[in-house]
């Protein structure tokens, strides 16, 4: 399993690496109520078991990579569903899933940028395993989906208060829940804030602030696609937000490369941020070239869930082989 702030992936594999089931649901990261976590996991696990035509007792090992601080809650929830299986829950930032997959996928550093950000790497020659980032959104998850969504909201706040030029982020926000309903009556969104009257800006400000009680980490992170869409339309504010995120991701990458004593690391970017395509990848590549000119970006199919499967196979007492990995990737 791989569970973060936005989604949970659940795969079931046979001992030879053949993939038997793939299911997904919402994330469980940082949810400390065991009953809620069980409610999230139950339909995902049951759908995976049904797809694989298995009973829960037939699962011998479960590994869950978690992008949150609620390991014990997730461990108890999984064990309650699968009492006969060996269950282990590890933090994404521990890097264990990355360390398991790196030799087979051919990279040194995995930059994981989803709701949050953590980079994990390995220097096989020197026996070094290191990580950078993974602080969580209350401390420092800059460069991830939450930080980008929050930056968009901050940009809108400054745009309204400081009467700045128009940005397409503001009208785009009015089409997204939970902002859609409160902003419905603001008929002046076609104006730049610098062209609005004080009363219009005050009305707009209060409409947006009314949504604050509904905002949580996942909701704010869900604004990331909106920022990307605005950047693709050449919106200057949106482009600036993504360039700032790219600069932070490069700082994380560079710090980790230094700790690993790698001057020409092979880097594989994974996570929802990079799935947005060139609008994120291009500014990251340009910024990376300035500090690590010999670095190589390796785009492949590796994701955290692959590493989690490998750890589950190891937990079941199996040795990993290239043949198993090849079957896993094919299926």
Protein model, in words:
This protein has 331 residues and is of the alpha/beta class. Among the domains are: 2-97 and 303-330, 2-Layer Sandwich (Nucleotidyltransferase, domain 5), CATH 3.30.420.40; 98-142 and 242-297, ATPase, nucleotide binding domain (Nucleotidyltransferase, domain 5). Helix content is 44%, strand content 16%. The strands form two sheets. The protein has a five-stranded mixed beta sheet with strand order 3-2-1-4-5, with helices on both faces. A five-stranded mixed beta sheet has the order 8-7-6-9-10, with helices on both faces. Helix 10 (278-291) links the parallel strand 9 and strand 10. Helix 1 (34-52) crosses helix 2 (71-81) and helix 4 packs antiparallel against helix 9 (236-259). It is globular. The model has no long low-confidence stretch (mean pLDDT 94).
